[in-house]
Each structure stands twice: as structure tokens, then as C-alpha cells.
Amino acid sequence: MRPLKTLHDRSIDVWSGRVGAVEQIDEYVVRWVNAQNMDQCVYFRMSRSGVVQVQIGEGANLFAETGQALGWDREPWARLTLRAAGKDWQISSPRASVLLSGERAVVTAGPRVFVLTQWGNAECSIQCRLDLASSERVFGLGEKVGGLDKRGRMWTQWSTDVTPHTPDTDPLYQAIPFALLGSQAGWRGLFAATSARTYFDLTQEEALWIGVDEGPLVLELMGGDTPDTVIAQYTALCGRMALPSLMALGFHQSRYSYLRAADVLAVARQFRHHDVPLDAIHLDIDYMDGYRVFTFNPETFADPAELAETTGALGVSLVSIVDPGVKVDDTYAVYQEGHARNYFIRYANGREFHSRVWPGVCAFPDFLRQDVRAWWGEWTQRWLAKGITGIWNDMNEPAWWGMDPDHHLPDAAEESGILHHEDNGTVWPHQAVHNLYALLEAAATYQGMQSTQPRPFILTRSGFSGIQRYAAVWTGDNSSTWEHLAMAIPMCLNLGLSGVPLVGTDIGGFLGECSAELYVRWVQLGSFLPFARAHTDRDTPANEPWAYGAEVLAIARDYIRYRYRLLAYWYTLAREAESTGAPLMRPVWWRDADSVAQECEDEFLVGDSLLVAPVVQEGATQRDVYLPEGQWWNVWEHTWHAGRERTLVSAPRDRLPLFLRAGAIIPLTPVVASTRQWRTSPWPDTLLVIRGTGEGSLFADDGQSTRYREGEYWDIAMATQDQGDQMRIRWTLRNRPTQNALLSLPPLLFRVGPFAKAPHGVMLHQAGRQRELDWHMSQQFCEFTVDLLRDSGMIEIKTT
To answer: What CATH number is attached to the domain comprising 381?
Structure first.
């Protein structure tokens, strides 16, 4: 069916409010049935944690079935109690309830209430209305253009290949139907847990309309006092990012394309020559033999294993693009196997579906089938044996261009009747599988890589809720404009708020020519995004740091090195994301949801303690910064600033405004040329502690394996308390490993301040003993060395 343009002013058959029967199907499910039409049903379930599932309409839920097939665990359902209350019905569990009253379903999920009305259908689509408070803002919804607050528009969740995109473009590559609703009163989450095309109509001030093309419409409703508690519940449903490889957190370089192996090696050597850290180079489609996936061009990339060995010696890994389109070619092994085994998507009559993409006419794997995913994983294993370290999944919306070479979009008739098959024989139309296609491809790739890489690195353009389990995400084919630089911040923030922590943008912009000034501002921003990769289009000027001259090279080197200086901080945040689903990159209202903070979309936090205020206007040498609650230390100007106020700060070309929260505890690692130089996860040489009261943590493991899941890691909780006459720093060893490499990590240099006057002394309390430490002052900071891992302890710094 054609995409809908609106939900709130459509003519629909409203079910809510009709005389209906309410019955308990079993101890976990209650059903409301319209007595006049038995096909009009609403099902209610509740998780033990208090998440409420409302399913409007009959039918199987492919997203739920896919999760089961991929081995995802779902929290058990709670037992329900149903009782009549006059004309109303009350459904309850220990942590949630639903009141069915007249035209309304009043859902209480944890501490928050959802009022659903006007559920019904129009032709094949199903929709309902959720009450919104006028003060409530709407965040998340995955990868969307525009500002951070998504109110005022109708948004469609349908993964789409679109180039270029503008501030008006929707939908884009990712389809993530999760909305985070927030105000000072509290937070709510709504997840449309269905793989069909869904809609979020936010054009009315006091209503959010949710719709789906093909039923049922499955809503997961959750509430909390803070945004992180809601995101934790959402990611418990669809999954969390696994602790990534160290390479994923380093700097990556790419272009469309490095045409020869010699070009790739030259770029790697230039990074080393210019002393710029680099972890990976990405190979775009021109490395292939006629754009056939899992092949190298025999002339321009004659010996990929030797290339990988040579770049590897420089600390640089190779990440190759792998599209899902398989060239129809009877002499090509990938196609031969897939065709012979009926592994490709087919029409209802059994004919193989074909469409044009880069290689020409292609077939497309039916990743809904486990045997097809296993087959794709086997080809991925063979690919890694050639020296490839990471996989870049592109064109996986899926993008196909139809059979007419004069057009880049398929004819509707070509897509009609495309079918996918589950392992149990169930057949699904492509409309139901479309949004899941990239997720399933990523799962297949991840499965194949795991046999040789405990922590696979996959980068994907498209995805659905749960994609964070398998892949990092970049925001696709952006443009080299100041508008797209500014757009990158809310776009990446909302992806993080939608459960995708490892996210970034093409540094410098993909389409068009990037100016030196724009590149500087973009590499400054990109160095503080969770995923950092520079990339550009074919036939554009070089985009490596040295391509813009000596001044730009020096600035780019500094900021990429700052990224590597923060690797232990990034790594600890990644562990938090795996544990709780929290984003690495956070809006400034993350811990202080005042109304002004919720309007900020051109600055962000890395973790809770580091505020980044990028310059996104051409020619600007200063910018206005809003600081959330607390006291903030200007990293460059060495001055304190009060929170909940705006301040104008200097931002010359070589300066990205940075602030640290009072009480911040930031581990700083030695700068390395590549994360390959670490024999464990990045271990700091310095612990930067800003005066004030705050908390922090430090996580460390071997950096390579999954042994941390068996307890092989350091987990250190830290807290600071500034009492005026003295400052205390406490740490607790919450977990100790047994691996020798982790037990021999060196002591840390504590750098604590700023102090207007030198302290009177520094006392260490550890392992039941206390002693005075040797210390000295350096630029308002008190410095001393402590073996943090010997035992839990406390440091007292006497200031008067």
C-alpha cells in the first residue's frame, strides 16, 4: 500500500468505545473483543518489570518471531488479574495495570500513565491515539533529520535508500520505531514493536498518533523517572550493544574509493608519517571484481592478504564493504551456490526476484531463513581469512533500482509478490520483512565473524530496533555543508536515545567538496562522536587530514589524539552501554531535564561529565553555550562557569569548546598510533579529577576476548566529595580479574584540581594503613601517584 500522509484526520473505523467483551485467555493474556466484530481485538500483556504490551489487531508478530529465531531473550510475562469495576475492567500485575473505561485504555507502566483512545482501522492499516502533555517533548525515533525534539511532523519508519537528504527528507536508512517522551514530570517510552511500515503523527499538540500499514499494531509501553531508566527497559526488549573491539573506538579513514592496493597502503603510511592515530581504512566497492561481493579485483587488489599483513604491521585494519546484492552470473560461485539452493528472495510463483544495483542485475539473499544466514556467515568466514578485519554493510535497506537501466527506482509491479520464508515454512510478504532486512543481514554477518573474532566489527547503513546488538551505525550519505554538520548532532543523539550507542557521521561530509574550515570543524566534532570515520564521494578532492594543508593537519592531529587520550573513558562508557543501554553521546538534559536544556541540540555530553559544544556556523570564532545544572570547568580558558546559564566562549579555528563537570573523574590514556598497541584494554596513565562532588568508574579487561563475561575484568567505582576544607576521593574495587596481564597494570598519576592555593597535604588510606603522599603542583592541579589496584581506598587532600 502507499505510504500514509497523515493519521489524525483520516476516516477510520474506531473500535474503542464499542460494547465489547473482556476475557482472560490464560494467566498472562487478557483480550478485549468488539462484540459486533470478533476480528476487532486488543490483547494486553505485562512484563514482570512493568512494561505493558498492547496488541491492537489479530495476526502474528514477525518482529517477535525474528527475535526468537535469533536467540533473543524476552523477559517473562507477569501473571495478570482481571476484575470488573462497575462498567470498567481492571487488569493488573504487581508492577503495572490497565483500566478499560469507556473509550479509553488507561495504562500504568511503572510510575507513568498512558491514555490510549481511538484505536481502529482504515482498510489494512491500524492506528490509535496517545495523549500527550503540551509540555512533553518527543525524542528518539531513530535516524531522522531536523531538530532533537521531533514534534510538529509526521514521521515514517521505513528503511529507505535516499541520496541526498535534506532537512525535509523522511524516511531515511534506519527504521527504529521508538519514541522517548520527556518532561520535568517524568519520562515515558513507546516502542511500536512491529516490522511493517509504521507512522508517528506528531502534528497535534496534545496527541501522538501511531499507525501501522499491516496489523497488528504492537505497542510496548514503559515509564520511569529518568530517561536512562526508560532506555534500559526498551533495550532490555530489543537488545544492547556488546562491548566493541578496540578498533571500533579508534579513528577510521575511507573514501569512495581507494582504487588500488597501493593507494590504501600509501594512506596508511601517510598517517604514520604525519603522526596521526589511525585504526582502520575502509574499502569501498571498487576493490571488488565487477562489484561482486566476496571478491577482489585481481589486477588492482592482486594480493589482499599481503596488503592486510602490511597495513596490519602499521596498526591499520581493513574494513571492506559487503552489499547484499549478489550479481546474477552463472560463473560466480556466490550466485551459483545461492541459486542452486534457492537461497534468494523469490516471487510467489517461485521465480527468483532480480533487480539492478552496482553489479548490474542481482539476486538478494532471503535472510529470514536460518540456513541462508548460516550460508552468508560461511562466506564471511572465508572473507576474513583473506585478512579483512571488519565488514561494512551498505545498500541494505535493501536498496534496489529495478530492471530499467534508465531509472534508479523499481517499478511497483516488480516488487509486487516478493516473498520471504521462515524456517518453519511460514511465508511473509516483503512489506513485512523489509525493515528487518538489514538487521537479519547483520546477524548473519556477526554469526560468521564470531568463529574467528570474539568481538566482530560491523558497520551498517540500515537497521531496525536491535541493530545495536550487531553493528555500529553511520548516518549515510550526508553532504559537505554546514547545514549537515549541524544536523549531525541531533541525528546522532536521537539514534543514541533509540538504543544505538555506537553511532557517527561521515566526517567532512560525503557528497560535495569540503572546505578546509568545514573539515576542521567536522573533525573536531567527529573526534567526540562514539564512532569516528572520515569518508567522501568519488571524484571529490582528497579528505585525509594532510590534504588541507599544514594548519589543518595540525588541528586534526590534535583532536584525533584527544580521542585516543580518552580511550579508557570511551571504553568504560561502552561497558555501561552494554550493561544498561545508555548512549555514549548524551543530550545536555540527560541529568537535568529543565526546559532550556531540552531545547539544546547543538551541544552534547560524552558520558555525564564532558560537555562538547561544536562550532557549526561558518566563520564563527565564538559561540554561545548552555550549561546544565552544576559548576563547569572550561578546559581551555581554565575558568569556572555556573550551570543553568548561557555563556559566550571563545572558539577560534583550532578550539572546540569543552567543559568538565565539577566532580568529574576522567581517565586519560597515553596516545598510541593504533589501539593494536594495547595488550589489554586502554589503561590510563592519568586520572583527571575536577574539584567538586561527583562519581565515576573505570572498566578494564583484556580488550580482545569475551572473558570479561566470566569475571575477568577490573571494575572500579570512584567518588569525589569536596567539603571546602578538604577533598576526598574514594574508590572501590567491585571486581578483580585473575589474568596476569590485568594484575600487572601500572599505578596512576592523579591530577586533581583546580586549586587557587596549594593544598596542605595529601593522605592515602588503603589496605588498613595511611600514609602521607609525595605531591607537587602543576598549573593549579595537585599531582601524585597511587597504585589504585592494590586495594580499595581513599585520598584526603587538605585544602586549609
So the answer is: 3.20.20.80
The residues near 641 (Cβ < 8 Å, ≥ 6 apart) are 627, 631, 632, 633, 634, 647, 659
Confidence of residue 413 (pLDDT cuts 50, 70, 90): low
pLDDT tens sequence across 725-734: 899 999 999 9
Q: Are 364 and 338 in contact (CB under 8 A)?
A: no
CA 57-60-66 angle, 5° bins: 135
Q: Which of 148, 135, 225, 146 is nearest to 179 (CA)?
A: 148
In a domain, residue 162? The reply is no
Residue 696 burial by Cβ neighbours in a 10 Å radius (0-12, 13-18, 19+): buried
**Is the CB of residue 88 less than 8 Å from the CB of residue 79?**
no
CATH of the domain at 89: 2.60.40.1760
219 and 293 housed in the same domain: no
Which amino acid would we find at residue 93? S
Spot the catalytic one: 136, 415, 477, 603.
Answer: 477
Cell numbers for 270: 601517510
Closest CA to 606 of 708, 526, 672, 506: 526
Q: In this structure, what C-alpha cell is assigned to residue 477?
A: 550519505
> If residue 483 lies in a helix (H) or strand (E), which one and from where to where?
helix 482-497
761 within domain boundaries: yes
Q: Are residues 622 and 635 in the same domain?
A: yes
Hey, what's the cell of 545? 587530514
Query: What's the rounded Cα separation, in Å, for the pair 31 and 23?
Result: 5
How far apart are alpha carbons 800 and 790 in whole angstroms? 29
| CB of 760 closer than 8 Å to CB of 798 | yes
Return the closest-CA partner of residue 675 out of 317, 348, 410.
317
pLDDT category at 7 given cuts 50, 70, 90 is: confident
Tens-place pLDDT, residues 566-598: 999 999 999 999 999 999 999 999 998 888 899
Extract the C-alpha cell encoding 337. Answer: 551456490
Question: Which grid coordinates are listed for 408?
Answer: 534508479
* Per-residue pLDDT at 19: 67
* Domain around 555: 246-565
Domain C-terminal end among 216, 238, 260: 238
Judge whether 712 counts as a catalytic residue. Answer: no
Look at residue 293 and tell me whether its pLDDT is greater than 80: yes
pLDDT of residue 412: 62
Q: How far apart are CA 373 and CA 338, in angstroms?
A: 11
Catalytic residue among 397, 544, 608, 715: 397
Residue 397 falls in the annotated catalytic set:
yes
pLDDT of residue 35: 72
User: pLDDT tens, 758-775?
Assistant: 999 999 999 999 999 999
Please state which of the ranges 21-30, 116-125, 545-554 shows the lowest mean pLDDT. 116-125
Catalytic residue, chosen from 136, 213, 394, 506, is 394
CA gap 489, 146 in Å, rounded: 10
- Residue 565: phi and psi, rounded to 5, are -65, -25
Q: Do 202 and 265 reside in the same domain of the chain? A: no
Claim to verify: residue 523 and residue 453 sit in the same structural domain:
yes
CA–CA distance, 679 with 693 (Å, rounded to integer): 33
